[in-house]
Amino acid sequence: MTKAIILTGDRTTGPLHIGHYAGSLANRLKLQDSHEQFLLLADMQALTDNAGDPAKVRRSVIEVALDYLAVGIDPAKSTICLQSHLPALAELTLLYLNFVSVARLERNPTIRQEIRARGFGHAIPAGFLCYPAAQAADITAFKATIVPVGEDQAPLIEQSNEIVRRINAGAGKAILPEAQAVIPSSGRLPGVDGKAKMSKSAGNAIALSASPEAIAAAVKAMFTDPGHLRVEDPGKVEGNVVFTFLDAFDEDRAGLEELKAHYRRGGLGDATIKRRLDAILQALIAPIRQKRAQLAQDLGYVLDVIRQGTQKARERTEATKQEVMAGLGLFTL
Question: What digits encode the pLDDT tens for the residues 239-282?
Fold first, then answer.
């Protein structure tokens, strides 16, 4: 039986953090056994708002690949490939831009939100505005039917499917499949400061390569309940950053529920719940950090993984591009 195809990946803007682990990496580890999975090192997407620092994008290719391998992504099961070295993606992007209007790109809720967040004003990079078409190219070039994304990214998948429907209509047959956005039920982890989402650029993240001291410091600085001034005071679990992290990583669900009940009725100090979280994160990150350090001593292996995965992906995406062009009646050689 043919396995369903998953397309996922990360912008190469720096090392990954535990928010990535909770939101996507843990699921990728599970899915790589039952699905055909492509992991895109999205360096071209990273350039849409980092064109002024291409060196960061370049070195982050290795950083992200190291994190993939360190958490347990198996190159024999999941294909790790480099976006900028897949020419068919750029060619399909250019083709797809003829099937979508500027007004539709500007109306995409995800793009509008990100434009505001980055403060572009009227100086919006064209590559950033056109990202929905580029993502449609990424997804369709692999003929992916499953795309794990955060809830805020769902409008991009819908716009990709709009382009698919227009291409299929132009071809008079279903050349490309539509994709389903798979949104994790846990939602996105907040930053350790309790503000917005966890982000490398905001400096409120815990890297997957964080030292024991960095983990302990981050947990110690986490916000809890500002009204929980004394141990005996009842505390709020909702909106409490420490409990949000415990919900994501504590596998002792019954014990966690007892802890929440105790905190709500009072008599449980913030230091106690922080110690529990610190122990859990230390246990999670220690083996990842150790394996990452070992892999960093053999970058030749890491580069070979990227090269071999990119070659496999290049063949797959080129075949799709040729099929799309032929289906639309364009000249092919």
Answer: 999 999 999 999 999 999 999 999 999 999 999 999 999 999 99
Q: How many CB atoms lie within 10 A of CB 301?
A: 12
Distance between CA atoms of residues 301 and 304, nearest Å: 5
Where do we find the tokens 């047959």?
A: 173
Calculate Rg over the CA atoms of the chain: 22
User: CB-based burial of residue 294 (10 Å sphere; 0-12 exposed, 13-18 middle, 19+ buried)?
Assistant: exposed
| pTM check: above 0.85 | yes
DSSP readout, 146-196? EEE--GGGHHHHHHHHHHHHHHHHHHTS--S---EEE--TT-PPBPTTSSS
Whether 86 and 175 map to the same domain: the answer is yes
- Provide the token pair at 240: 């409490």
Give the number of domains in the chain: 2
For residue 94, the enclosing domain spans 5-186+299-327
∠ CA 318-319-320, nearest 5°, is: 90
- 203 occurs within a structural domain: no
Tokens of 96: 């797809």
Say if residue 269 is in the same domain as residue 310.
no
Question: Do 68 and 166 reside in the same domain of the chain?
Answer: yes
Residue 113, φ and ψ in degrees, nearest 5:
-65, -45
For residue range 203-233, list pLDDT tens digits in order. Answer: 789 999 999 999 999 999 998 999 999 999 9
Question: Are 24 and 124 in a shared domain?
Answer: yes
Q: CA–CA distance from 279 to each of 207, 224, 274, 288 (Å)?
A: 16, 17, 9, 15
Any domain includes 129: yes
Same domain, 141 and 281: no
Find the Cα–Cα–Cα–Cα dihedral 203, 205, 210, 215, rounded to 10°: 110
